[in-house]
Amino acid sequence: MDIRQLRYFIAIVEERKISAAAKRLHMSQPPLSQQLQAMEKELGSKLVERSGKYLEVTEAGSTLYKNALEITQLMEETKSEVMEVGRGLNGKLTIGVNTFSVNGLPKVFKHFQKKYPNITYKIQQNESSHLCQLVRDRMIELAIIRLPLPLDDFSVLHLCNEPFYFITSKDHPSFNEEISLTEIQPYPLLFPSTEGLGVHYLILEAFSRIKLQPTIVGECSDISLLLDLVTADFAASIVPETLLHRFQGYPINAYRISGTTDLTGSVGLIWLKDHSLSKAAQNFIELIQNV
Amino acid sequence: MDIRQLRYFIAIVEERKISAAAKRLHMSQPPLSQQLQAMEKELGSKLVERSGKYLEVTEAGSTLYKNALEITQLMEETKSEVMEVGRGLNGKLTIGVNTFSVNGLPKVFKHFQKKYPNITYKIQQNESSHLCQLVRDRMIELAIIRLPLPLDDFSVLHLCNEPFYFITSKDHPSFNEEISLTEIQPYPLLFPSTEGLGVHYLILEAFSRIKLQPTIVGECSDISLLLDLVTADFAASIVPETLLHRFQGYPINAYRISGTTDLTGSVGLIWLKDHSLSKAAQNFIELIQNV
DNA sequence: ATAGCGCAGTTGCCGAATATCCATTTTGAA
DNA sequence: TTCAAAATGGATATTCGGCAACTGCGCTAT
Question: What's the pTM?
Answer without folding.
Answer: 0.78
